[in-house]
Design goal:
The protein is an alpha/beta fold and 253 residues long. The protein is built from eight helices and 14 strands.
Length: 253
Amino acid sequence: MPRAILLGSGTSNGIPTLGRAYPPEFLANPKNHRLRSSLMLMGPTGNLLVDCTPEMRLQVTGLGITDIEAVLVTHAHADHVMGMDDLRSLSLKTGQPVRVYTLEEHAQTIKEIFPYAFKEFPQGILVPRFDLQPVPERLQIGGMDITTFIVDHGKIRVTGLRVNRFAYITDVSRIPPAAREHLYDLDCLVLDACRYKPHPNHFNMEQALEAAAEIGARQTYFTHLSDDFDHDKVNMDLPPGVELAYDGLSIEI
């Protein structure tokens, strides 16, 4: 059975955030330590990595995963792409560019961030190689049938995805009607809930709860979490079927 593993559940700074002091009791809970948000979809014949955080190498090797069939980049903000340089090891292993699916505007940003990945170098100099491809509406990867759709992250388009009765939506401020059509009859939804205060580019807790209630998944996990949320304390106050995600959360799909 396919499995989704949350490699990270934190907002763009990660938690704990550099330069900020935290109560010892907050830090004592491992679920309050949050790497940047990303996902591994593990299918019967291969794996799809969703986003490449700055900690991606540690996130993936920590699971003992050595093979990635392809990568899907939901959007090209730093917390979702700055680990892409570490994909060079996969190119060295296979002798082929890493297949990366992303929207056209994000492919252009990736080229600007990693221009050396698309240049020629003398033999013996290892650089990452990306085979950038547009995101199709349907992907067949690792024995999984993956449906993609577009949500809004402020003015930026972000790719969401669905596998069987599991859906993943990171970095969202609006779910358009066309995307809602893919969010019916879900066993599990993973959804952005950045903080308590309103945010121009993310669902805050109130908006995330409203969206979760409207979508009606049997279980919803909130991700892309700031340090507003003390994991155990917040979970106690959430409605039935809604919980905070945490790094390493594994979900059968």
